[in-house]
Amino acid sequence: MTAPNDRYLTLDDLRTRIGEGEIDTVILAFTDMQGRLQGKRLHAQYFLDVALAHGTEGCNYLLAVDIEMNTVDGYAISSWQRGYGDMEFVPDWDTLRLLTHLPATAMVQCDLVWLDHAPVVQSPRTILRHQLDRLAERNLVALAGTELEFILFDTSFEEAFDRRYRDLVPSNQYNVDYSIVGTSRVEPVLRDIRNHMYAAGMNVEGAKGECNFGQHEIGFLYADAMVTADNHSVYKTAAKEIGSLHGKAITFMPKFNEREGNSCHIHLSLRGADGDIVFADKDTDSGRSQMYDQFIAGMLATMRDFTLLYAPNINSYKRFAAGSFAPTTVAWGRDNRTCAVRLVGNGPSARLENRVPGGDVNPYLALAAMIAGGLHGIDEALALEPELVGNAYDSDKEKVPHTLHDARDVFTSSAIARAAFGDDVVDHYTNMANVELAAFDAAVTDWELIRSFERM
Asked: Per residue in 311-357, pLDDT tens?
């Protein structure tokens, strides 16, 4: 991988900027299981004098905790019995970028390896890299784009916490889908996010309002799949930071309330290593190549098996409701937003859209799952079923798993998942689901209190 454009930094650029006092902080970060950036802020001179040559390390529990950062049982790579040792952060210098929303700060994203330099196979970035390597063996590359929605509140993160996330004030009080007035009301925040992300090397398309109150989406141009996943992680973190600088809170949770949830539709296409178009074929009635049809068929065949990687949390499954623009049916259709897989574009722009993921998705895991599913279809020469025409919500076709429990069971028992990702990865993310399920089963929810406190 090489840096996508000249807005990224080179190491020589960074050295110069540090020497001139323009940069005093360098963030080394990786994306954890939950899709969060984790890592360290290094003083720039220490980075040059020590970390650049000798690297830096972090506790291996960072890939074996729940979202509250609690140490939990069941992970093979990290435990009290194993002593909670270290992993090494290995910078990918092609990801070196400025973060202009923070003072004098640069960031580089890292891969994770053990102290003997063996890759940490459970790391999300490594999981995606493995699937991209499988494509490369076939002289193919993946291009992808993620469409990540969020809800913006006039309430700060601190006040939201104190309120236990109840009675927050959305930045728009009505549906602002495509509304110019609606986006103008929050343009100071949206503009800052767009411009700071452009300065960080992302190719920003634009911003639009969405349906839920205060809901918006900022779009970015498609890129190589790894670049898209890296950018997604940086953007999601930076958007929260920029919102906070404006005294506002942002949530990407899939279902904040009973209105429309936050989706993360993922667009994907393949190209030849030399840039050849491989999803289109003008000599077929459909305009699609056999490879494209097989790829779609593979994604459908593995949709239930891999749903855990598209919808990794309890809240993920609250999106899957009829008439919600979130899919419930394992089906494909041309420009049909009721299906799990929607085909869009023609010729060079032909691509599929996976509509299952929500705003909590880990982009590395989801893209890896889409590629693994597509390759299963190609390798097995799967035939593509007829498209679903009409309302997929009313169809009798197979459904997306309805709960995290169901998705966990299908994933852990999937021979296809174990062949594509390996037992170490499947067992690791099965345990992640087990941890979330146990935590939720032990919790007393507001729903229970409201229904039960007086009336039972």
From this structure: 999 999 999 998 898 999 999 999 999 999 999 998 899 999 999 99
Contact 268, 352 (CB under 8 A): yes
232 located within any domain: yes
Do 332 and 343 meet the contact criterion of CB atoms below 8 Å apart?
yes
Domain end (from 89, 120, 151): 120
Do residues 111 and 226 lie in contact, with contact meaning Cβ atoms separated by under 8 Å? no
Pairing relationship of beta strands 215-220 and 204-209 according to DSSP bridges: antiparallel
DSSP 120: -
Give the Å distances, CA to CA, from 365 to 31, 34, 369, 403.
Answer: 11, 10, 6, 19
CA distance 21 to 44: 9
Nearest to residue 292, comparing CAs of 337, 341, 339, 330?
A: 341
Residue 278 lies in a domain: yes
Rounded distance, CA 424 to CA 432, Å?
A: 12
Residue entry with tokens 């969020």: 150
* Same-domain pairing of 137 and 282: yes
Q: What is the maximal distance between C-alpha atoms in the chain?
A: 69
Amino acid (one-letter) located at 25: T
Residue 45 is classified by DSSP as H
| Nearest by Cα to 392 from 435, 336, 448, 316 | 336
Token pair for residue 87? 């992993």
Burial of 65 (0-12, 13-18, 19+ CB in 10 A): buried
pTM recorded for the entire structure: 0.97
Q: Which residues contact 253 (CB under 8 A, 6 or more apart)?
A: 262, 315, 358, 359, 360
The pLDDT value recorded for residue 3 is: 83
Contact 203, 231 (CB under 8 A): no
In angstroms, the CA 213 to CA 270 distance is 36
| CA nearest neighbour of 320 among 261, 361, 376 | 261
Instruction: Give one DSSP letter per residue of 202-220, joined into a string.
Output: --EEEEEE-SSTTEEEEEE
Residue-wise pLDDT tens digits, 375-401: 999 999 999 999 999 999 999 999 999
Helix residue ranges, H only, 221-362: 225-245, 290-302, 307-310
**Could you give the CA distance from residue 397 to residue 388 in angstroms, rounded to a whole number?**
9
User: What is the three-class DSSP state of 175?
Assistant: coil
Query: What residue type is assigned to position 123 of the chain?
Result: S
- Take residue 354 and report the two structure tokens written for it: 């996976």
Structure tokens, 183: 């986006």
Domain boundary residue among 74, 92, 120?
Answer: 120
Residue 4 within a domain: no
